[in-house]
Amino acid sequence: MDDDIDTIAFYDDEEEMCENGCNNEGYTDDNDFEYDYDLYSDGGSETIPRLIHYCLKPTLYDAASYMVPLLVASLAFKIFAQSQFTPCRIFHGISAITGLYVVQHYVPECLHLIIILIAATYISLYIPEKYYKGIKAFLPSILVIFYCELWMKPAEWHKVRSVIMVAAMKAVSVAMDNIYIEKRPNLWEYSGYMLCASTCLFGPWISFKDYVALYHRNHWTAWWALATIGNLLISFVFLSISNCWTQWMLSANAGKWLVAYRDALAFRASHYFISYTASGILLLGGHPVSLTTITKPFQIELPHSLVQVVVCWNIPMHFWLKTYIFRPSVMHLGKFGAVIVTYLTSSLLHGLNFQLAAVLLSLGFYTYVEFQLRSILANTFDACIASKRCSDRKCSHARTVSNCWWVTVTNLGFSALSVFHLAYLGLAFDTSELQETGYSYAHTMDKWSQLGFASHWVALATYCAYFLIR
Amino acid sequence: MRLWMMLGALAVAVPALPAEITRNKNRGRGSMWWGIAKAGEPNNLLPMSPASPHMDPAVYATLRRKQRRLARENPGVLMAVARGANQAIMECQHQFRNRRWNCSTKNFLRGKNLFGKIVDRGCRETAFIYAVTSAAVTHSVARACSEGSIQSCSCDYTHQSRAPSGARDWEWGGCSDNIGYGFKFSREFVDTGERGRNLREKMNLHNNEAGRAHVSSEMRQECKCHGMSGSCTVKTCWMRLPNFRVVGDNLKDRFDGASRVMVSNSDRVRSNSNAIMSNSASNSVHGHREGLARRHRYNFQLKPYNPDHKPPGLKDLVYLEPSPPFCDKNPKLGILGTHGRQCNDTSIGVDGCDLMCCGRGYRTQEVIVVERCACTFHWCCEVKCQLCRTKKTIHTCL
């Protein structure tokens, strides 16, 4: 307390001094005061450093440190498993062990499930074909997904869903190949394939054939390193867009459609982040470049049609759905039925979540309507306005983008419609509390009713238009 | 008629003044540091060496001995305080731009209080000034810590240990604002003069604490899930951008609902006043003075003036006496009056001409205003604007 006494002495002096010196003139003069109106600015110049400080740095630092074990595991898989001196069984063994490490490190909740899934699906491969064909190939995977959906904690299930999903897709593809091609992998190959470190966490699905082709695929080039780093860098750019830049560009009071677009954009950017990370890890794990295109952001952000969006969203998954679901079922059920079955399978794989199922089924309906309407229009007007982009050289239509202005306008109109639908469908994936446990029915309905179910009405109107001109 | 009423009000107020003046020596002693905001460019204030030879003597003179010691022991902190003080002034003037009292400050320092003599009264406006300055110092120091511009403190790493359940919780090794240090420093620096010996000092202490509480409750962390098709395999988190404007808005709300208090007989221990301190105090402001007596001064409970009201909470602003009328110039209280202030002729609020001009009437004139307009964004990242001349009708109070 000693210096407080000093302080008082000091201050009392000053107080005296001021009482004499500046009291009278202090407040008689108006110029003594200033109104700092223009001093205040919205802090605009300060926003970017603040964004970097509070959002970009923690986000990127966080994500990078999260990735390190996965990157190490992938690289280890490439170095040790794919070397020239590794015997075939060791290759699959290393693949399975690194994969087990990745699962154990990132999603320990589902380690036992993965092992059960592998065991069950592997045993089912040996069931005679007459008891086990067609849809029954899905049974073990579906049972595991049902088990997770019903008995796992929602937050845990929501966390491990993509891991189980990728494993289920791999299992189904092997089972289907087994039926049609009659080639059964041995246990080493099978567990190596199912657990492969570079695909087990973020996916994507790769075919068994592609996996086996990795054996002795030992090549190290500067280009490979560049492509890996490039993919990872791009993924971080998308991560920063998803977490930070979208919030920075549009504030919450920008109008409900802009906010919807922003939230949907954040969701899509998050998907690009995961996809590019997966690409980078695939490359790091030694997979060929041809496999690593998972998503095409530009085709989705500036879509030609919703069909294109669905195709480009997750290309390996699209390929899987086309090969193993759509093609087998189109023979029995017809086109519309096959589309619906495909989307149902897709939502089943994504877990029995209402929001995802609603979004996926909406997409299924939208794409079907769009595809039909546009192909009718394209045939009637003999113009390049179908859902699939005409290639420039061999376009079967008379009117193309180059010789007819309204072809461009119509395509742009359909693009705008797609952007609108995407904003509407994507906005339900926001950063609310529910993001960790899966979005509920009430949440989805609440979000969509705020926008008056506009997109569904528009789609219905499009369907009516199609129905009338059919 | 109004004028007479006003004079009457003043006549009532004046007898109270002598008693105030006897205590005037204690008044404002803890608040002289506000002047730091006006003391030249902040750059001059940043002492690179521990002793601060670069400090403007005018600034130095406004600080109490203890504050000087704090500045000396924590190099770089004065710049943060100065930034905070400026932030507080801007925020105050923004919040009160449409009111009769518009948080005007003195243009230059003459050893007197920056906000003028209004601070001598224990009214609502004073409460806001104390709260907003204390909040701004907390905010600014906390941020300066994480930016590394204060040598004696660093980032707050306590976020790492917050893992209430399971392994999936966010663990961040990154640097976040050291709100614990900001809080402590603000208590040491801002509350220096206020020992809580009389009611006015208690009021100041309470309002300072309220300002700090508003800042520390605004720091939040936000997370987002990433994963294949909407699952939550990866969770990335970041700190929510704490904007001082939000703190200002909250404090303004508390200003509107401030509670008038009087002396309480019992010095009850306030349960939650130290709660904020306990969770993050990674760096100590200074080591050797953490006595119990110091903490004790925050343990008081103010009693509401109206016994029917509930006692003020931690985040509430408190005041002792009704605000003086701000209509007319009052040199004794340092009130400028609303003469010449702009008003809005269509509004029925306080910024409307009727209320703002206190019924004296207003003058309407057309002026040509040069404004920035037709702004376009150039890649990247520049906004270019043209200067436009537009005619505007402005109303000024007589």
From TrEMBL, chain A:
It comes from Cephus cinctus. Its EC number is 2.3.1.250. It is a multi-pass membrane protein. GO terms for molecular function: palmitoleoyltransferase activity; Wnt-protein binding. This is Protein-serine O-palmitoleoyltransferase porcupine. The chain crosses the membrane at residues 63-81, 110-128, 187-208, 220-241, 273-294, 347-369, 404-428, 448-469. Belongs to the membrane-bound acyltransferase family. Porcupine subfamily. It catalyses: [Wnt protein]-L-serine + (9Z)-hexadecenoyl-CoA = [Wnt protein]-O-(9Z)-hexadecenoyl-L-serine + CoA.
TrEMBL record, chain B:
It is found in: Secreted, Extracellular space, Extracellular matrix. Residues 1-19 form the signal peptide. Keywords: Developmental protein, Disulfide bond, Extracellular matrix, Lipoprotein, Secreted, Signal, Wnt signaling pathway. Gene3D superfamilies: 3.30.2460.20. InterPro entries: Wnt, Wnt_C, Wnt_CS. GO terms for biological process: canonical Wnt signaling pathway; cell fate commitment; cell morphogenesis; developmental growth involved in morphogenesis; muscle organ development; neuron differentiation. Its main location: secreted. GO terms for cellular component: extracellular space. GO terms for molecular function: cytokine activity; frizzled binding. Ligand for members of the frizzled family of seven transmembrane receptors. PANTHER family: PROTO-ONCOGENE WNT-1, WNT RELATED. Belongs to the Wnt family. This is Protein Wnt. It comes from Cephus cinctus (Wheat stem sawfly).
